[in-house]
Amino acid sequence: MQSGWAKAGALVAAALLGGAVAVGIGNTVDGGSSTTVIREVQSETTEPAAFPSSGAKRISDIYEAAKHGVVQVTSTTVVSDNLFGAQEQQAQGSGFVIDKDGHVITNYHVVQGAKKVQVSFSDEEQRDATVVGSDPSTDIAVLKIQGAWARSLTPLALGNSSAVKVGDAVVAIGNPFGLERTVTAGIVSALQRHIPSPNGYQIDQVIQTDAAINHGNSGGPLLNANGDVIGVNAQIESESGGNVGIGFAIPIDTVKDVASQLIKEGKVEHAYLGIEMVPINSDVAANFRVPVDQGVLIQHVQPGSPAAKAGLRGGTTQVVYAGTTYWLGGDVITKADAQSIETTDQLASVVTSKQPGDSLDLEVHRGQETLNVTVELGRQPSTPVG
């Protein structure tokens, strides 16, 4: 059950809907005409499971504190409109409340193209929600629930994803396959992953977890051992479409910034440099006479981009080395705002931390020259160029 923008045979959107770095719903979605609802029951277990780290909360305590802030999101989409009338389909995902004003975080792909969005708890009727704004580049959307009911909701505490470490215990809460208020637990398996966004850009600094995440978990919270949200569950890595212990969550630091802009402006503008690049190392430098042995080599510069306006140059000669294609002859970037650059992720992170119109100071090596180039960053196009 793979979406059109996920990596073929691998990355799968975890909701029921289900580049070179340029710094409906139907049978492809889960759900159908009927849904089995599993309601809460009181466990007879006298001592719920706890995380092994000292002072950590029990999983059951985290669940009890967070469950009233987690919602099921149902989006209705028109898949065809003809002489026989409009045909609609529904998809389901998850979300969570972030304030007493009734704002809810979910994934963009959960509500993409929806004409109607509703949210509910397992013990509440569905309530209409409006899409305040959405950002395909980070796969985040903000909803708002209307009326007094929204004020009775429980906002979840938002943590700090920059403090997350590999091996940290985590809990995921959501609605996999429509099974409401499901909790799973695991650890942070890796950090600094990147996954494709719905519009083809790259989402950086993604958290990888082995907590079971399946279709319908998309948009739900990933919480740490203190019960704070550290990420928004978004995708899984799977050949079959089911959980194999590799899930990905968008870091909450990214989500907080995006949500703030969406609530204030209804949209998000991302800074844009406009290059395609590859990292280099000492082997590449020695074999192809690249002037430095670390940095990122500019492969192509998008015409009319901020990089082009600043005079940055891409490669002109194509070679293949150790299975990787390089375009040689272009500029090598070794520093960005005085920060040493060794990988494409590092440069992408510097760019994404800025706003359109901000300046970016680059140290560039061109042949035997070392240049200082200042680029005025632009606005990211709706889809990657080229």
Describe the model.
The chain has 386 residues and is mainly β. The chain folds into 2 domains: 1-33 and 57-268, Thrombin, subunit H, CATH 2.40.10.120; 271-379, Roll (Pdz3 Domain), CATH 2.30.42. 13% of the residues lie in helices and 39% in strands. It has 7 helices and 23 strands. The strands form 5 sheets. It has a 6-stranded antiparallel beta barrel with strand order 8-9-10-13-12-11. The radius of gyration is 23 Å and the shape is globular. 45% of the residues are buried. The model is unreliable at 1-10 and 12-48 (pLDDT under 50).
Comma- or semicolon-separated keywords:
386 residues, Thrombin, subunit H, Pdz3 Domain, six-stranded antiparallel β-barrel, six-stranded antiparallel beta barrel, 23 strands
List the helices and strands and how they pair.
Layout: E1 11-13, H1 59-66, E2 70-82, E3 85-97, E4 103-106, H2 108-111, E5 116-120, E6 127-135, E7 140-145, H3 148-151, E8 169-174, E9 182-196, E10 202-209, E11 221-224, E12 229-237, E13 247-251, H4 252-265, E14 271-272, E15 275-280, H5 282-288, E16 295-301, H6 306-309, E17 317-321, E18 324-328, E19 332-336, E20 339-340, H7 344-352, E21 359-366, E22 369-376, E23 378-379
Antiparallel strand pairs: 1-12, 2-3, 2-5, 3-4, 4-7, 5-6, 6-7, 8-9, 8-11, 9-10, 10-13, 11-12, 12-13, 14-23, 15-16, 16-19, 17-18, 19-20, 19-21, 21-22
